[in-house]
Design a protein that fits this description.
The chain has 153 residues and is an alpha+beta fold. Helices cover 39% and strands 18% of the residues.
Length: 153
């Protein structure tokens, strides 16, 4: 897998519980780069576009109400296999399946309030990133230590 971008959102429960720094710390310590970041209130229209695949499901309205209830932190994260790495770091959606050491395994007890969202594919990452960021808000950069983190020997 090559370098890629993914979209990560710390949801209202993560912000309210003071876990923003913890999530960012974990991403950066894994070797991923924060290419864009902002705190924002999500408008209902944006929330509905973001979660369009859940439209019609019984939990859709409560999901939209939740994600628009308080600020979130939206990020673009870059690195080798970023989508897969972030998904693994987040852990399973069901708290009883989320392993200790994952974000959800360490901090969640509810499927509905699960701290963080991460794109599930590179294609969805690009789509989600475009909802939250303009191109001029995303900064790609190189760190000298990247070869130590990403290169095969």
């Amino acid at each position: 897998m090559g370098k890629e971008r993914t979209f990560v959102m710390i949801k209202p429960d993560g912000v309210q519980r003071g876990l923003v720094g913890e999530v960012i710390r974990r991403l950066e310590r894994r070797g991923l780069r924060i290419a864009a970041i902002k705190m924002m209130h999500i408008e209902p229209e944006l929330a509905e576009r973001h979660y369009v695949e859940h439209r019609g499901k019984p939990f859709f309205d409560s999901l939209i109400d939740f994600v628009t209830s308080a600020p979130v932190v939206a990020m673009v994260v870059e690195g080798t296999a970023a989508v897969t790495l972030v998904r693994n770091m987040m852990g399973a959606l069901k708290p009883e399946e989320a392993l200790p050491g994952s974000i959800r395994g360490d901090f969640t007890t509810s499927k509905s309030y699960n701290i963080v969202h991460g794109s599930d594919s590179p294609e969805n990452a690009e789509r989600e990133i475009s909802f939250f960021f303009k191109d001029n808000e995303i900064f790609s950069y190189h760190r000298k230590v990247e070869c130590w983190l990403e290169c095969e020997t």
